[in-house]
Amino acid sequence: MVGENMNSKVAAAPANPGAPGPTYQEIVLSDSVRAPDGGVPEVLAPVRNVSLGTADISFERYISEDFFRREMQHVWSKVWQFACREEQINGVGDYFVYDIGSYSLVILRTEAGLKAYHNSCLHRGTKLKPSGTTGWTGDMVQCPFHGWTWNLDGTLREVPCDWEFDHLDYKANRLPEAQVSVWNSLVFVNMDLNAAPLEDYLEVMPAHFKNWWSYEEWRTRVHVQKILSCNWKTAQEAFMEAYHTPVVHPEMTKVVGDWNMQHDIFGPHTSRDLCPMAVSSPSKHHGMSEQDLLEGRLTRSVHDTSTAAIPTGETARSVIARRMRDDFLRDYEKDLSDLSDAEILDSLKYNVFPNLFVYGGPGLPQIHQVRPLGNDPHSCLFDIYVLEPLRPGEDRGDPVQMVQITESDSYKDVPGISEMNGLVLDQDTQILRWQHEGMRASHKGAETLSGYQESRIRHLHNTLDAYLASDQARE
Questions:
Q1: For the chain, which residues make up each domain, given as ranges?
Q2: Can you name the CATH fold of 81-190?
Q3: Average pLDDT for residues 410-417, to the nearest whole number?
Q4: pLDDT, mean over the chain
Q5: Among candidates 422, 436, 455, which has minimal Cα distance to 372?
Q6: Distance (Å, rounded) from C-alpha 272 to C-alpha 343?
Q7: How many Å from the N-terminal Cα to the C-terminal Cα in the chain?
């Protein structure tokens, strides 16, 4: 299931002609610093969206135990999925346990590279490493129940009371493996040994992200995981549209575009949204000047919050982009002069099916992941990694400890999360219980999506259906 290569540059065109205000492409073309040829940077130029239909989507896909079971069997066991950052298993003997539903994998760093093993002893099934753990296992993996021991390469090393096991074939009792691969410092696993390589699965992502600062040169500053009372898709989809912004985040309408955000679909597994920053939302008539936009954005994100009159011929976007270039050069010795204002400023959020968001460009270095919590279709885990750059020659140091918070906890209380970011994340996640409960209470029994702003939600379901259909057809 590899999509068409849609990385070619296309002419700037309205992505959603009916939307008020300027398009994302028009905003970028008005920036002070654009591509060398004066146009939209090649990586931002593609406008990729087609009509995916208008049929309602049943809520059974979110609340049904049977549908959840089918997802686990035919989707989660077949797709590439983000497990951890490479820095979390940096040394030989380091391990990370990744769980999805009933599946559990132990990802190990060996002398030969990364390995991923099914987290179950071949003796009597005990988990080799507890769920939710990461650490160092030395030069072996030992079952905590009876002490069966494997080498890091998966070969069976020792069985206590081996005279009782004359019938045991040591060579046949290697730890069963899953595929494991790394892209952009992100470790992915796939339990399907026949699945296509990760690079193929990621479609345009490797080519697009070559334009930006590699995440291999960033470390995790904050890792926070929140438990949510909703289906994993409910949480996932909240971050695939900005249609909700004027209602859920009214204060954000003064600093970001929303209804004029661009949504691109590149293939079965990848899509993105391009959200302009330091502009006023077309959903509101704030009548904001460029000076207002500058001061509003500076109070939220840029280190230097001092303000002055915007120079003639410049905009809030150009001033903020210049300050960010200065900040990165001063603080991290990183020259961003080769990037356009849009690549520095804007939210460039890529979605990898089924459950990952990776932000491009240096302006919003974050990774978001949503996944089911155990075998419960009514709860999920939402992980956020906030990254910071490494200075030249600087070591990452020890991985940060994950902070887990409950549904009632505020992101604003998590050390390292800014007050504004915490407020927005609280608003996004607090609405999800209401939505999921409303799905279960619904008399209509289905959702009606918009044609463009929620198109990537429909795309998610189309890809989900393709996996369900293709895998069931083989049974």
A1: 24-61+213-473, 81-190
A2: Rieske Iron-sulfur Protein (2.102.10)
A3: 95
A4: 91
A5: 436
A6: 14
A7: 18
Please tell me the distance from the alpha carbon of residue 132 to that of residue 383, in angstroms, as a whole number: 13
The region that residue 409 occupies, defined by phi over 0 for left and psi between -120 and 50 for alpha, beta otherwise, is beta
Angle of CA points 301, 307, 308, to nearest 5°: 150
Residue 291: CB atoms within 10 A of its CB come to 14
Closest residue by Cα to residue 268 from 468, 14, 99, 451:
468
Distance CA 90, CA 117 (A): 17
Backbone angles phi, psi at 392, to 5 degrees: -50, 125
Tokens 């999509």, located at residue: 3
- Does the pLDDT of residue 307 top 70, yes or no? no
Q: What is the pLDDT of residues 236-250, one digit of tens each?
A: 999 999 999 999 998
Distance CA 273, CA 156 (A): 47
- At 330-373, the pLDDT tens digits run 999 999 999 999 999 999 999 999 999 999 999 889 999 999 99
Q: CA 177 to CA 120: how far, in whole Å?
A: 11
Instruction: Kindly indicate the confidence band of residue 440, based on its pLDDT and cuts at 50, 70 and 90.
Output: very high
The two tokens of residue 370 are: 């949503």
Q: What is the CATH number of domain 24-61+213-473?
A: 3.90.380.10
Four-CA torsion 467, 183, 372, 196, nearest 10 degrees: 20
Of the candidates 311, 343, 310, the one whose C-alpha atom is nearest the C-alpha of residue 324 is 343
Kindly report whether the global pTM for this prediction surpasses the value 0.85. yes
- Amino acid in the structure at residue 310: I
Distances (CA, A) of 472 to 11, 75, 438, 469, 475: 40, 11, 30, 5, 5
Give ∠ CA 240-43-7 in degrees, rounded to 5. 85
